[in-house]
Amino acid sequence: MRILKSHPSYNKLLYWGKTISITALSQMVVQGLGFLCGILIIRLLPLEEYALYTLANTMLGAMTMLADVGVSNGVMAQGGKVWQSREKLGAVLMTGLHLRRKLAFWSLIVTTPILFYLLLHNGAGWLTSFLIVLSIIPAFYASLSDNLLEIVPKLHQDIYSLQKNQISVSIGRLVLSAILVFIFPWTFVAILASGIPRVLGNIKLKKIAYNFADESQKPDSIIRKDLMAIVKRVLPSSVYFTFSGQISIWFISLFGTTMALAQVGALGRISLIFNLFSALFGFLIVPRLARLPNEKHILLKKYLQTILLVFVFYTGLALTISLLSKEILWILGEKYSGLEYELILSIVGFCVSALAGVSFSFYSTRGWIIHPIIVILVDLSAVVSGVFIFPISNLKGVLQFNIYVASILCLMNLLYSLIKIKSIKV
Fold first, then answer.
1. pLDDT score, position 319
2. How far apart are CA 46 and CA 67, in angstroms?
3. Which of 107-121, 129-143, 281-295 has the lowest mean pLDDT?
4. What is the pLDDT of residue 130?
5. How many CB atoms lie within 10 A of CB 118?
6. What is the pLDDT of residue 279?
């Protein structure tokens, strides 16, 4: 034992063991609560209401992406350079928050009319549509700052405080959903039950972040210029991918049935099982990738290790879920029975998208951005060709289409990451 403790790598291994254990345990609780909350809503909401809930949540994600368009990646990249200085990190954070609020206004202008139309198109009345749109506001308000605020404790690896706050928010969502949706099984109530705890958790998150970042700092014009350089380059592709990223939902909502919309939303909830590893990656690996020196051999080694780890994990989890497909569908309820093959397609699509996301996170935190015209042309080619190959008016066809498009984007991100690493001269 003494020999083991005296080994130069002992303290490092001990640190990583404790960090991963605490993070994994906390994320198991967070994701477990999120999964239970999702299943609860699936079971409590009528099929028609869950279809509207799926549509509203998808649009909320689109609104959040349009209010970001590269700001969070820019803050991570800039913050990774000055994370040891409270004042400089505060300036980066305040600049990012200021820019995010401006982008949020335009996000609302663009997405609100689209959501209203799609709700009406899928059978919601005018009053119901209005209430659903209003119910999104609390969650959208919290989203304007929470993922930027999380960057600060992530860079400082203050994982405990961050995850404690996440657990509190998850418990709040589960309790409110169980009480309110049981009494009032309506879409806007379910969305409010998720949004209100998120607003309260956002208040606590600010206190955590401001322990490491000086909140009195004013937005800095130089930092803003650097962030805007990223935003301008990312904006076209971000706007495009805001809608193309959930194209299966849009196709089903426009050309499919209400039942198919509810089914694709319910199957998507199973992917919450995968979020544990995604959260671990976001907490432990992405910030460290951002802090790595710009040296070819180090980046290549870490990148390949990360890709291999993600691939092995997701492949194993996908195989496990496919073997337990009937039992998993039983959890969703009788309304979603008989969708074993569709469940497997949904999980495969998520795995491929997750692998693409890992590569994107890697190169975006390095400040590397694929030219938006290239990204849009590649994806648009995949989408257009996929429309002719797969029947997008039914659930099975849309899920196959989703795998096809995600595979092409995954290949593009993998190749771009390797090309950028190889181009480093050091």
1. 87
2. 31
3. 281-295
4. 92
5. 21
6. 65
